[in-house]
Write a structure and sequence with these properties.
The complex is a heterodimer of chains A (about 800) and B (about 260).
Chain A: H1 15-19, E1 35-41, E2 47-53, H2 55-59, E3 63-68, H3 69-74, E4 106-107, E5 113-119, H4 122-129, E6 133-138, H5 145-150, E7 163-170, H6 172-180, E8 184-192, E9 204-210, E10 215-220, H7 225-237, E11 244-247, H8 263-275, E12 279-282, H9 285-291, E13 298-306, E14 312-324, E15 351-360, H10 374-392, H11 396-403, E16 412-413, E17 419-420, H12 425-435, H13 441-450, E18 454-463, H14 471-476, E19 485-491, E20 497-501, H15 510-522, E21 529-532, H16 550-576, E22 584-587, E23 590-593, E24 599-601, H17 602-610, E25 625-630, E26 639-649, E27 654-665, H18 672-691, E28 722-726, H19 744-761, H20 775-791
Parallel strand pairs in A: 1-12, 10-11, 14-15, 20-21, 27-28
Antiparallel strand pairs in A: 1-5, 2-4, 2-6, 3-5, 7-15, 8-13, 9-10, 9-12, 13-14, 16-17, 18-26, 19-20, 19-25, 22-23, 23-24, 26-27
Helix pairs in contact in A: 10-19, 15-16, 18-19
Chain B: E1 5-8, H1 12-21, E2 25-28, H2 34-39, E3 47-50, E4 60-62, E5 66-70, H3 75-80, H4 82-87, H5 89-96, H6 101-104, H7 109-115, H8 122-128, E6 132-135, E7 139-141, H9 142-145, E8 160-166, E9 170-177, E10 184-193, E11 196-202, E12 210-211, H10 213-221, H11 225-229, H12 246-264
Parallel strand pairs in B: 1-3, 2-3
Antiparallel strand pairs in B: 4-5, 5-8, 6-7, 6-8, 9-10, 10-11, 11-12
Classes of the chains: A alpha+beta (about 800), B alpha+beta (about 260).
Bound molecules: flavin-adenine dinucleotide.
Flavin-adenine dinucleotide (FAD) binds near residues 27, 31, 34 and 108 of chain B.
């Protein structure tokens, strides 16, 4: 036994370098002869670019070159593409207005790229950028979705009413029928607040062009270097794959925001071939706030039909989703297939209909952010179900239990396309109720009252979909890429192993978790295993890391490649030990011949494979190096229950989270410590969304929350000690039986927090509060209910 | 940042002459405000004159009925000072609650008072404790020192050398932090010194720190939490921003004042 296989809480091997300042991030990399770039950005949310005069800037000290959108357009540079095509209700495709990397003719949000200045130093580039004279024809900005849909001002002249698409899913007629026969109809209006991702490492890039080979290289802060190579190479710059290397080295957090192909990547790569020297760019923190794709930003109206007993009969949802000024890589899939397909939640609601309009506004593009669509869906459902319980006077626990999909109902076909493969929501719910001492809550409420505090408890149960798959289904729904994963397992002559994975680790701990898979498979300790990712010249292919897909989709690829290695190694072992292959057994790193005491170690076989002196050369090739591509049968479906308890100071509106219990079903757990860490991180972001974080633009499209002075990131002292546990059913759709854990914390938690706050405020007559539930909002809600009650 | 000349002064005189000689010279204390301002290119001084090596500007003196804190004394040293803790514990507590450990290890009382950020904590103490700001040229009473947000009566090139705080009979500072910046959304210092009651409010006013005279009169006759809470502050002249409306700030002033009274005993 290695002690480093599946199920062991192995310490993260990558943390040694991260915690000692030895990480190798993009900004740590310097290339010989490197120049520096500054991107001039629009200070206006919406304006025509009447002229961009660079004559003074090009003459400034240290300046190598200055380029504008006109230069790129003249060079035939393409538009930044969207990775997922959605169709309207009438079958026509969504609107896909052009997205030039450097703005051309018009700027559409504060921060839109206007010009690039390349100079000997970053300061010289920035100084010169101040000399560029731009004649902006300032236009009115559209920031809120209703004004955008009214269509007075158009973000893109060719997109009427600023509507990107108007999409639907589910059966409208069946839902209408359900409502017609309902005893209760409960409705809710909700905003899912816009968030700014705030990865610790700002985006950065270095581009290089080798004149002798015409080879381009781009180092970039990406979650998926092969996807960037494909999107940028094929669509924007027309560089074939074999002439373009994209490297995503250590990346300091992504949370989705580093999935997308960003304009700066294309601008730098293109410009490197113009100036014939490497160009480096690193975003300032202010640029991160203003130009990293934001998350969420939905407005929804939802209605639930119930029968007399509380059984759900039908659900109707209408959502408007802000997608910002341009379609980002997955901006169209997040509010559709990653959102409304989960509207059944953990419930047996038989009829569901959802319609989603996406809207262009003069704000930064909106795209996937930890959870991507699933937090928005869970928030809507769990707020609505809690409201239903209150409105019709049923206990929120009972109402949920009464409507939950039972374990024997899986595989469960929902009315909104997805088929849940397995799960047991009643079990995780029961455990969470117990772990949070739900039954003892009323006493805690009474105790809190004695010290002048309002105490509340809130529940959220959820199911979510990870590892989006299979490729054929995703393709049928509009995905423009496959969603499989690949792995290469290279056993070296002396038995150590390098694994090349097409996923990318930017904080998740893959170098440990994936090594544990190999350790388990080969029976060798993880210090003999290297996980390599991020370089398109090293890794055969890959779709990267997002949507909690890496272990569920990338893991089986590794497993399959390991199995291929073992199959081949058995043939070698059989030859050397003069036995039949069917008699060779492999366990704990040893090949044995059944019924004998003959054995060979893993490393002996690998040596034989590379020194094939005594070798079945007519049957197999030398070497021990196998490739696998894996396309799963279905999504995986993690789920669980989150319970939050808060205390509110009614005098100030201050909310303190007293306890937070999460019981999550993530299938098989490979490394319990990493899983716990992932849940903690997700909960921090979920509690951040619920209580603290909110992006605010003013009516002119200026970002008011453009720094940490105004954008509230959750800090350790905002959070309680989490009580987390995993429990559940092994995954049914992949051979590792894993489900995905990266996003569950951020998906399940926001409604638990808000439901707890509303429970605490219920005695005062408060029945709604929007996220983030800041002390000011809570205080305001209390004042308004006081006024209302006084009037009654 | 734009280019600037960097100089390190060995004495207060050297520092003031260096700033006077420069085109547009600025003192550099802890740099916690000035450096971020430069990084964002919001200021373009020709010269920075670093005060870090001037030993005479560091230290805390016990003057019996007053405590004098020299300008370059860091927040952490005020928080940990035996003298401040025993004579004016409210002031030690205030310093201990500024920003984060990194900020407290760099930021100075002189820099904070000179900067007069409308949400900074020290201005509330200076005003409520009726302190005196001592410069290389004169002594300025708290009452006349602050002159609207980010503005003071300091002349160009005038250097704060110390702040002298009379020792109060009672004092406490209560801060309701801005959730994002953790500066004061509303901070209230209540104090009784020589029989006089003073209440200073930071974080809330459009013109920076101010005295809450309504609460002062309520407390003068009746030093009690209820008396403070009973005052309904007007929201005239208070700030409204994305974090708090003027109305909310007005309400918080009474609540924070009442909690400060309880804490002061
Ligand atoms: C993350 C963060 C959080 C913070 N949180 C808080 C908070 O919660 N509460 C709070 O009150 N403050 C807070 N601050 C501000 C901090 O406490 C410092 O007091 C403040 O930045 C100024 O002090 P400094 O020594 O750094 O001055 P500097 O930044 O060096 O200087 C500030 C200004 O004062 C001038 N100056 C400096 N010293 C003198 C002098 N002796 N005479 C005349 N002029 C002078 C400088 O020329 C400059 O214009 C925070 C700062 C940061 C970065």
């Amino acid at each position: 036994m290695t002690g480093t296989g599946i199920g062991a809480s192995v310490k993260r091997v990558e943390d040694q370098r991260f915690l000692t300042g030895n990480g190798n991030y993009t900004d740590d990399i310097n290339r010989p002869g490197q120049s520096h770039a500054w991107i001039l950005r629009s200070p206006h949310a919406h304006a025509t670019l009447n002229s961009v005069d660079i004559s003074k800037a090009v003459k400034a000290e240290g300046v190598i070159a200055v380029f504008t959108g006109a230069d790129m357009a003249a060079d035939g540079v393409g538009s930044i593409p969207c990775g997922w095509q959605i169709h309207n209700k009438d079958g026509s495709p969504m609107m896909e207005p052009g997205h030039p990397p450097l703005a051309h003719e018009k700027v559409r949000y504060v921060g839109d790229q206007v010009a690039i200045v390349i100079a000997a130093t970053r300061d010289a580039a920035r100084d010169a950028a101040e000399l560029i004279e731009v004649d902006y024809g300032v236009l009115p900005a559209v920031v809120d979705m209703d004004s955008a849909l009214a269509g007075g001002t158009l973000v893109h002249d060719d997109v009427p009413n600023n509507r990107c698409f108007d999409w639907e899913i589910g059966e409208k007629d069946a839902v209408d029928e359900a409502f017609a026969k309902a005893d209760h109809v409960v409705s809710i209006d909700l905003v899912n607040n816009r968030l700014i991702p705030n990865a610790m490492e700002p985006r950065a890039a270095i581009s290089d062009f080798d004149r002798s080979t015409s080879q381009y290289t781009l180092f970039t802060t990406s979650q998926n270097p092969h996807v960037i190579r494909l999107l940028m190479g094929a669509f924007v710059l027309q560089i074939p794959e074999h002439k373009l290397r994209v490297v995503a080295p250590d990346v300091g957090g992504g949370f989705g925001s580093k999935i997308f192909h960003y304009a700066e990547e294309a601008i730098l790569t293109w410009a490197a071939a113009k100036v014939h020297q490497p160009i480096k760019w690193t975003a300032e923190r202010s640029e991160s706030f203003a130009t990293d794709a934001h998350g969420r930003d939905h407005e929804s109206h939802a209605e639930l039909a119930l029968d007399k007993s509380g059984k759900f009969l039908g659900l109707r949802v209408a959502t408007k989703a802000n997608i910002g000024a341009y379609l980002s890589t997955f901006g169209s899939s997040v509010p559709t297939y990653l959102y409304a397909t989960l509207m059944a939640g953990v419930y047996t609601t038989p009829a569901i209909y959802a319609e989603v309009q996406t809207v262009f506004t003069n704000t930064v593009p909106v795209d996937a952010y930890r959870g991507a669509g699933r937090p928005e869906c869970t928030y809507l459902l769990e707020r609505l179900v809690t409201k239903a319980a209150r409105d019709i006077g049923i206990d929120p626990v009972e109402l949920r239990k009464m409507n939950m999909i039972q374990p024997d109902q899986y595989p469960y076909q929902t009315p909104v396309a997805l088929q849940y493969d397995c799960g047991d929501s009643p079990a995780t719910f029961e455990s969470a109720l117990k772990a949070s001492d739900y039954a003892g809550f009323e006493k805690r409420r009474t105790d809190a009252e004695k010290s002048g505090k309002l105490r509340g408890i809130g529940i959220s149960t959820y199911i979510e979909a990870c590892g989006i798959a299979p490729s054929a289904v995703a393709g049928a729904l509009g995905a423009r890429a496959g969603l499989y994963e690949s792995a290469q397992v290279r056993v070296h002559p002396t038995g150590s192993v390098t694994v090349y994975t097409g996923t990318h680790s930017h904080g998740q701990g893959h170098e440990t978790t994936f090594a544990q898979l190999v350790s388990e498979s080969f029976g060798i300790p993880i210090d003999q295993i290297e996980i390599s990712h991020g370089d398109t010249d090293q890794v055969q292919f890959g779709m990267g890391t997002y949507g909690s897909r890496s272990l569920a989709v990338g893991g089986p690829a590794i497993l399959n490649a390991c199995n291929k290695v073992i199959d081949k190694a058995k043939k070698i072992a059989a030859h050397i030990m003069e036995a039949d292959v069917s008699d060779i057994e492999f366990a704990d790193g040893k090949f044995t011949v059944a019924g004998t005491d003959k054995e060979m170690a893993f490393a002996e076989i690998s040596l034989a494979a590379y020194v094939p002196h005594n070798y079945p050369i007519e049957e197999i090739e030398p070497g021990l190096d196998e490739n696998a591509f894996y396309d799963p049968l279905n999504f995986s479906f993690p789920g669980g229950a989150h319970i939050c308890e808060v205390e509110i100071d009614p005098e100030t509106g201050d909310v303190e989270v007293i306890s937070f219990t999460a019981v999550d079903d993530v299938g098989r757990v490979v490394n319990p410590m990493i899983v716990e860490g992932q849940v903690h991180g997700g909960l921090a972001q979920g509690l951040g969304q619920a209580m603290l974080e909110g992006c605010v633009y003013d009516d002119d499209g200026q970002l008011l929350t453009g720094s940490y002075m105004d954008y509230t990131m959750p800090r350790a002292d905002d959070l309680p000690n989490f009580s987390v546990a995993t429990q559940g059913v092994m995954g049914a759709s992949n051979p590792l039986e894993v489900k995905g854990v990266g996003e569950v914390g951020a998906i399940g938690s926001p409604p638990a927090v808000i439901n707890a706050i509303l429970d605490a405020l219920a005695p005062l007559g408060v029945d709604d509060i929007s996220m983030p539930a800041t002390s000011q909002k809570v205080w305001q809600a209390i004042q308004e209910s006081n006024v209302r009650q006084a009037a009654e | 940042m734009y280019q600037f000349n960097y100089q390190k002064a060995g004495s207060a005189d050297e520092a003031t002459s260096a700033v006077a000689a420069a085109d547009d010279g600025r003192f550099l204390a802890g740099g916690m405000t000035l450096i971020p301002t430069l990084k964002q290119r919001l200021a373009q001084p020709s010269d920075l004159v670093d005060l870090a090596d001037i030993g005479d500007l560091v230290g805390i003196e016990d003057g019996g009925d007053s405590v004098t804190i020299k300008a370059m004394t860091r927040h952490v040293d005020v928080a940990n000072s035996d003298v401040v803790q025993s004579k004016i514990p409210a002031l030690a507590g205030l310093a201990d609650n500024i920003g984060d450990p990194q900020v407290r290890n760099r930021g100075t009382i002189g820099g904070s008072v000179a900067n007069n950020d409308p949400a900074a904590d020290y201005p509330a103490a200076v005003l409520a404790l009726n302190a005196t700001v001592i410069t290389n040229q004169r002594e300025i009473a708290a009452e006349s020192f602050f002159d609207g947000m980010f503005t003071t009566v300091l002349e160009e090139g005038e250097l704060i050398t110390a702040v002298r705080f009379p020792v109060p009979e009672k004092a406490a500072y209560t801060k309701f932090p801005n959730p994002a910046s953790r500066y004061a959304l509303v901070g209230v210092m209540v104090a009784q010194t020589g029989g006089e009651t003073r209440v200073a409010v930071t974080g809330a006013g459009q013109d920076g720190v101010f005295r809450a005279s309504d609460i002062e009169s309520a407390l003068s006759g009746n030093w009690s939490a209820d008396a403070a809470k009973g005052v309904k502050m007007s929201d005239d002249g208070l700030n409204t921003d994305i974090h708090a409306s003027a109305e909310y700030r007005a309400h918080l002033i009474s609540v924070m004042a009442s909690r400060a009274v309880t804490a002061a005993g």
